[in-house]
Amino acid sequence: QDVTVFAAASLKNALDDAAGQWTAETGKKAVISYAASSALAKQITEGAPADIFISADLAWMDHVEKAGLVADGTRKSLLGNSIVLIAPKDSKVSVKLVPGVDLAAALGADGKLAMADVAAVPAGKYGKAALEKLGAWAGVEGKVAQAENVRAALALVSRGEAPLGIVYKTDAAADSSVKIVDTFPKDSHPEIVYPVAQIKTSKSPDAAAFLNYLRSPKAVAAFEKQGFTLLD
Amino acid sequence: MIEIDLSHRLDAFRLDVKFSSTAQVTALSGPSGAGKTTILNAIAGLIRPERGRISVSGRVLTDIASGRVVPRHKRRIGYVFQDARLFPHMSVLSNLTYGRRRAGASTPVEPVVELLGLGDLLKRKPRNLSGGEAQRVAIGRALLADPALLLLDEPLSSIDEARRAEILPFLKKLPESAGVPILYVSHSTDEIAKLAGAVIHIEAGKVVTK
Amino acid sequence: MIEIDLSHRLDAFRLDVKFSSTAQVTALSGPSGAGKTTILNAIAGLIRPERGRISVSGRVLTDIASGRVVPRHKRRIGYVFQDARLFPHMSVLSNLTYGRRRAGASTPVEPVVELLGLGDLLKRKPRNLSGGEAQRVAIGRALLADPALLLLDEPLSSIDEARRAEILPFLKKLPESAGVPILYVSHSTDEIAKLAGAVIHIEAGKVVTK
Amino acid sequence: MFDWFRLEPAEVAALQLSLKVAATATLFSLPLGIAVAYLLARGRFWGRSLLNALVHLPLVLPPVVTGYLLLLSFGKRGPVGAFLYDWFGFSFSFRWTGAALAAGVMAFPLMVRAIRLSIEAVDRRLEDAAGTLGANPLVVFFTVTLPLSVPGILAGSVLAFAKAIGEFGATITFVSNIPGETQTLPSAIYTFTQVPGGDAGALRLVLIAIAVSVVALLVSEYFARKVDRRLDLQ
Amino acid sequence: MFDWFRLEPAEVAALQLSLKVAATATLFSLPLGIAVAYLLARGRFWGRSLLNALVHLPLVLPPVVTGYLLLLSFGKRGPVGAFLYDWFGFSFSFRWTGAALAAGVMAFPLMVRAIRLSIEAVDRRLEDAAGTLGANPLVVFFTVTLPLSVPGILAGSVLAFAKAIGEFGATITFVSNIPGETQTLPSAIYTFTQVPGGDAGALRLVLIAIAVSVVALLVSEYFARKVDRRLDLQ
Ligand SMILES: Nc1ncnc2c1ncn2[C@@H]1O[C@H](COP(=O)(O)OP(=O)(O)OP(=O)(O)O)[C@@H](O)[C@H]1O
Ligand SMILES: Nc1ncnc2c1ncn2[C@@H]1O[C@H](COP(=O)(O)OP(=O)(O)OP(=O)(O)O)[C@@H](O)[C@H]1O
Ligand code: MOO
Ligand SMILES: [Mg+2]
Ligand SMILES: [Mg+2]
Q: Which family does it belong to (chains B, C) (predicted)?
């Protein structure tokens, strides 16, 4: 019987890679359903047949845990990421993300700052927290264009709609039409964590093995190749 | 025996008629807009009159006072409409046998097709029939439905005189041969004279004795 | 002067007619399905014949050989269809004046309304007119369009004899009073005799000399 | 060049699943769609406006909300879902049947409107004529009203099928995105758009989706012309 | 109890914006919708099937993809977008007009199908009659075909409006989610659904969306009945 994994969509490349390695080594298969963490978490609390859940933020893992569906002792922080300020490749803008940074000036008269939804999507929440910490939020609040997800925010910058944007480093690194202007200091926002856990109702005998495999050297290589860092 | 006693209003038009006839073919005449079609519609059960009673050969079809209103599909009335109203999605043959199939009747189709000269049209669709052809199909469809009463609303208006001369005698024979009385709307005094045993003349919604 | 020379095929039906008439009212007679309506459709420009030539009062409307086919809306033909074809979304009055407005004609409406007895119907919608009422509106609509030729396809089939006795003389006068020749389809030998200066008899798509 | 179009097994599975889901959704919602369209076209009952509003709801709400409502009611723990499972052993949860349900619900308003429009255009005088010829109301419906509404039924089915091929928000929210079971073409496309470098993969699937629907449309137009000819509407 | 329904200013803004966007989308796509429906119903030209497929595309593709395609073509650097900006100083980027464009595009197939269905049902013999009465083809279209297609035009507008109220995926991808400028009701609802514990807020906005569309439907049914009576269709 296959292991069913519910995973945040942003993990697709790395996790497909790791799961493929696992299959090659063990002959067992992981079936992975990628969607927004919010949808996955709600599905799990409504009885979805997931063995493992990998969320893109802590809040939705907390939601599942509060519903009593996390198998005891299996919740771990798996991956870390960082957020960066990006601009279109041909942009001449230069900004240092230090306290008191004047992002509004960098945006120009009617430029927008593309972010993922600052209330809902993890990357947006981290970005807002960081800007607040750097004292820049008040200056740009009215200029933020919130996208449904990080990728859409990235598209807004890479298509030149917005002169600046805030996305994960993992996304920025892979898009050749944007450049990273600066990386947000680690201490400017809550730690970016992808938590993982086995679901209590899971009956798969291989779930624990897969969970362990995610920390194997080959899996780690797959995650790091996409720009994630392994947490412990 | 047809007994009609009706009151009905359609906006400004008021119908108020009472007549009965024991003739085998009863003609309904009168100027355009007098209410002839409205009377046929009431007999066929297509409109529910405000007041009144309709009975045919002793069978009460509508009696508003007692609340008895036989639904249209149980009236066994063969109605040839003033506009042909053929089913556009069916062949001429399917149109002809539509009522026959409902009634489970075994009336042979061949003689009617013959009489009305429809032999070459059976596979055609109604849409591109000529005016007279459509009217003949409508007559055939009503005849084949095994009716207990025929309502004919100017059935021969678009039909040429030669064909008319064949159909009229057939209709005249029908009450006797098949026991089907006929109520016949026509403007042609000639047709009426040839066919009808009784004439009811309607004007402005009332029966007028001439 | 009407000159017609036509060949056209509709599936199994073949029309092949050639005739001309200098009469003011020309009658077109013949059994149902002979091709009378098809001829009118060709004259009105509703069908494009496979071959032939149509001219009215010296004006060539269709000449397939030379490629000249006047579009229907420029033919100035008042066509009373066998089915009334009233515009369901317009009042009787709007129907009556539809062609008149297109032609920018100033023909007074009142006398036509009077003649056809439509005074009480002007605000009504066509849908619930009686058969004869609808037919009269269709006649009025064609008359008011300021036509150069009138095509009448059994225009009086649903109209009672009293009204008919008023309309027929009016139609008879029309060619002289307004210079509008008439092509008239009818099954009624009586009507034809009263009205027509020439009779063209059609059978199975061919002109037959009687 | 052509290699680029060679599909991976998971993509073939997604394509097949999409077709199965869309066909199932369209076919199963058709009888209900016809019934509701008839009620809305002809019924004069209390609550007609309510029914009308209810039918339109999936159009008005964000698909995610519709999906979530489906999850709440047809999920394993939802009232309807639990009932179906307890009594019939049938479950929509995270099965392709659930994807079909979501697609059917999302496509329902489109289907109903088209059919309703055609039913409203049927000439009632023909129904009257059928009645006098001995056809009871049910027979009139099946021999006159329904055949004359075929243009709307076809148009409604085409719209519903197309919508069902494209449906994504409600589906992924209701039954997730499980390869081989609930991962339809749009879900697969969506997944591609969520990762760096996924654009090429997304584009390929988009082209496939377009090809599928062009074929479906051509087939439907072919049938529509055939029907037109049978009904002699032109 | 009633406090719960009191809307916050941002929500009022979202509601107003949704109405503005949906009304604009519906009104502006109507002329084009009628033209395309007429072409599809009556035209016999090469590329007709292609046009048909193109019109259906927004139905078949995941909304996110449609939004992305809009961004590619109507964005600041997109060919159409750049042209409009350079020549007319007009831009869809991050503006409510962009939201209306997205909603209009998404709703277009629904509108076209309904109108096309009605045009196809118009009795050509009436158009012939109008022709013999001196009406040129354009006049025939405006005095006969179009008025007799009003049921479909109404139905198509209702569908389009409802869809435009609910549209979200293409809108947020194209013009993102800027409160007061592009944050429509569905975007606001979506945001709520993405936050744990946001269900209550989402539910409130969902109820508002439902109320809006019930009102819109009632209004449209009222007009439809009026039209029916004017056309004397029943
Ligand atoms: N639904 C309706 N609403 C209003 N008036 C109507 C309606 N139906 C019929 N009428 C009117 O009622 C009158 C009687 O109509 P009916 O069809 O019975 O006439 P008729 O005697 O059959 O005339 P004809 O010989 O012209 O067919 C007409 O003046 C007609 O306009
Ligand atoms: N579109 C068509 N396809 C095939 N046959 C047709 C078509 N239109 C007409 N016909 C046939 O052509 C013949 C001539 O039709 P037409 O309408 O001209 O007859 P008509 O002389 O006007 O007859 P009526 O007096 O009955 O109105 C008929 O047999 C008819 O069935
Ligand atoms: O599923 Mo995500 O990574 O929260 O957009
Ligand atoms: Mg009558
Ligand atoms: Mg004829």
A: Belongs to the ABC transporter superfamily.
Residue D51 DSSP label: H
Report ipTM for this prediction: 0.89
| Chain D residues within 8 A of A171 when measuring between CB atoms | 196
CB neighbourhood size of C194 (10 A): 15
Taking the CA of B33 as reference, the closest ligand is: 1
Q: How far apart are CA B180 and CA B77, in angstroms?
A: 10
Q: What length does chain A have?
A: 232
Radius of gyration of chain D (CA): 20
- Structure-token match 């508003």, residue found: B64
D12-51 as b/e: b if 16+ CB within 10 A: ebbbebbbebbbbbbeebbeebbebbbbbbbeeeeeeeee
Q: What is the dihedral of CA C113, E139, E46, E68, to 10 degrees?
A: -130
Domain at D203, CATH number: 1.10.3720.10
Nearest to A9 by CA among A214, A168, A190, A206: A168
- Residue E2 maps to a domain: no
User: In D, what residues contact B, Cβ < 8 A?
Assistant: 125-126, 128-137, 139-140, 143-144, 147-148, 230-233
pLDDT confidence of residue D113: 94
Which one, of D198, D178, D205, lies nearest residue D15 by Cα?
D205
Q: Is residue E60 part of a domain?
A: yes
The DSSP call for residue D176 is: -
The full set of domains in chain C, from first to last, is 2-208 (3.40.50.300)
CB contact under 8 A, E172 and A60: no
Decide if B85 and D125 are in contact by the 8 Å CB cutoff: yes
Q: What's the CA gap between A164 and A182, in Å, rounded?
A: 11
Backbone phi, psi, residue A154, to 5° = -60, -45
* Dihedral angle over CA of D204, D205, D210, D215, nearest 10: 100
How many C-beta atoms lie closer than 10 Å to residue E87's C-beta?
8
Cβ contact C70:E132 at 8 Å:
no
Residues 6+ apart with CB under 8 A from E5: E204, E207
| D205 within 8 A of D185, measured Cβ to Cβ | yes
pLDDT band per the 50, 70, 90 thresholds, residue D224: confident
Mean pLDDT (chain C) is 92
Asked whether the beta carbons of E185 and E15 are under 8 A apart, the reply is: yes
**D31 pLDDT more than 60:** yes
At residue B210, the pLDDT reads 63
Task: Using a CB–CB cutoff of 8 Å, tell me whether E51 touches chain A.
Answer: no
**Domains contained in chain E, number:** 1
Q: In whole angstroms, what is the distance from residue E47 CA to residue E157 CA?
A: 26
Cβ contacts of A114 on chain E, cutoff 8 Å: 176
The band of E4, judged by pLDDT with boundaries at 50, 70 and 90, is: low
D3 falls within a domain = no
For residue range C73-121, what is the model confidence (pLDDT) as tens digits? Answer: 999 999 999 998 999 999 999 999 999 999 887 889 999 999 999 999 9
Tell me if residue B22 falls in helix, strand or coil: coil
Q: What is the tens place of the pLDDT at every residue in E53-97? A: 889 889 888 888 898 888 888 888 888 878 887 888 788 878 889
Q: Indicate the pTM of the whole model.
A: 0.91
Assess if residue E67 is contained within a domain: yes
Question: In angstroms, rounded to a whole number, what is the distance separating the alpha carbons of residues A42 and B106?
Answer: 66
| Neighbour tally for C177: CB within 10 Å | 9
- Calculate how close chain C gets to B58, using CA atoms only, in Å: 30
Least distant ligand from the CA of C131: 1
Tell me the pairing of strands A83-88 and A164-168: antiparallel
Ordered alpha helix ranges (H), chain D: 9-42, 48-60, 63-74, 79-88, 96-121, 124-132, 137-140, 146-148, 150-166, 169-175, 185-193, 199-231
